[in-house]
Amino acid sequence: METVVIIGGGLAGHRAATTVAELCPEQRTVLIHSESGKPYDRPPLSKDFLLGAKRPTLKGSELYGDRIVFRDGTKATLIDPLRRIVHTDIGEPEHYDKLLIATGSRARRFENFNVDPAQVHYLRTESDALRLRAALAPGRRLAVVGGGFIGLEVSSVARRLGCQTTVIELAPRLLPRSASLSLSEWVATRHASEGGELRLNCANLRMSNNSKGEVILTWDGGAAVADMLLIAIGIGPNAEIAADAGIDTADGIVVNARCETSVPGIYAAGEVTNYPVPALGRRLRSESWTVAGDQALVAAQVMCGLDAQYQDLPWFWSDQCGVTLQSFGLPALATRLYRIGDIASERWLEIGTDDHGRFVSAVGVNPGRDMTQLRRDAKAGKPISPDIMSRAEEIDPSEIYLATG
Ligand SMILES: Cc1cc2nc3c(=O)[nH]c(=O)nc-3n(C[C@H](O)[C@H](O)[C@H](O)COP(=O)(O)OP(=O)(O)OC[C@H]3O[C@@H](n4cnc5c(N)ncnc54)[C@H](O)[C@@H]3O)c2cc1C
């Protein structure tokens, strides 16, 4: 009997474990997971969970203990690729025939600041979210460091809970890494209309407590006062265990479309990977639920001897301020932009192409079926549908310069 070992019980590890257990019931499937308890879903942690929703479970959890050996509360510490063994901090090492690394990411830490740790929050795990939820009481002042999706989602929820929010962003606009200029501006206007304070261009941020125990934030040209901090300045891949085993890493674990790493018998999937996207002519590391789940499915199929490939364009959504934002592809690659819908409304979509008219991105607010169609066509390698293009208006190139600059 062959053994498939999976390290990491986030969405990718869970999806791979349950798929292998279904596709190859004759194999022994082992999931080593450093957190305690069954895998859960992360997106609700910055949304409904903060409002009191219950633990977001993942489908298929009933297979644990039955068809999947589930070693939760156990950290994989070392991979020995020659002997095909994974060492763990607790219990016996695991021998593998095939190994999947799905160790995901961790929240980036802010260095060199002096604030009472009880007032400082990060958001990656269920326990982070429980701690944050307990702290979001009416009237409290929350400063969010980082104007990315997670920071903005939390500030939106915090206001619903009666908190005052200030988002502090280093870049000249919100969502600097993943949105077009129009989407950044739309989001800024929306948060401001809900009473959220936004501070952009906050270089040289310093944070400390004053004698009253308040958090004082200062940056070049500005200052703010808060009762608590959420630091949401991005994530970094948990790729060290792969690098230590001699597996190629470069901003994540380098995989091919079959999720194979540079070491035979070892695969990787989810947020920890750096994977090829031929349609964009580059490799990416994506922070997206859909990428993590779909790529893990491919990894499981390949480990079970099936022919599968993952090389989709990244897509993700974000729920905040009562709307759903979506981003597909890479907005920074667009040299021509086309828009459907009124940018002042709650329903619009902006499509980006390169100079040859090839699709590279789509972002929007509640973009509905057009986004679904664009995703379907991109997956099938088809050009943008004439129906969509006939309804789209080209946007002034100066907006493109700003969006990609
Ligand atoms: C608060 C929040 C909100 C989000 N919202 C959205 C959203 O709205 N839309 C969207 O598209 N995406 C969203 N995402 C991103 C999405 O949830 C992630 O892309 C996805 O969960 C990644 O799954 P993963 O399994 O690759 O990694 P992870 O979820 O990071 O799971 C990896 C697991 O491996 C464990 N692990 C790490 N090292 C070891 C080791 N050595 N041994 C054993 N276990 C180990 C980790 O503890 C972790 O549990 C959100 C993420 C967060 C944190």
Q: How many DSSP-defined strands?
A: 27
Contiguous uncertain segments of 5+ residues: 401-405
Helix content: 10-25%
Outline, from the CA principal axes?
Answer: globular
Please compute the radius of gyration using only Cα atoms.
22 Å
Question: What is the averaged pLDDT score?
Answer: 95
Bound molecules: flavin-adenine dinucleotide
How would you characterize the overall build of this protein?
By secondary structure, this protein is α/β, with parallel strands linked by helices. The chain folds into 3 domains: 3-106 and 236-303, FAD/NAD(P)-binding domain (3-Layer(bba) Sandwich); 117-231, FAD/NAD(P)-binding domain (3-Layer(bba) Sandwich), CATH 3.50.50.60; 322-404, FAD/NAD-linked reductase, C-terminal dimerisation domain (Enolase-like, domain 1, 2-Layer Sandwich). The protein has 9 helices and 27 strands. It has helices at residues 11-23, 126-135, 149-160, 181-193, 240-244, 289-303, 368-379, 386-390, 397-404, and strands at residues 3-7, 28-33, 68-72, 76-80, 85-88, 94-95, 98-101, 105-107, 120-121, 141-145, 164-168, 197-199, 206-209, 215-219, 222-226, 228-231, 235-237, 253-254, 266-268, 273-277, 282-284, 315-320, 323-329, 336-340, 348-353, 359-365, 393-394. The chain has a 6-stranded antiparallel beta sheet, with helices on both faces. Helix 3 links the parallel strand 10 and strand 11. It is globular, with a radius of gyration of 22 Å. Residues 401-405 have low confidence and may be disordered. It binds flavin-adenine dinucleotide. Flavin-adenine dinucleotide binds next to helix 1, strand 2, helix 6 and strand 22.
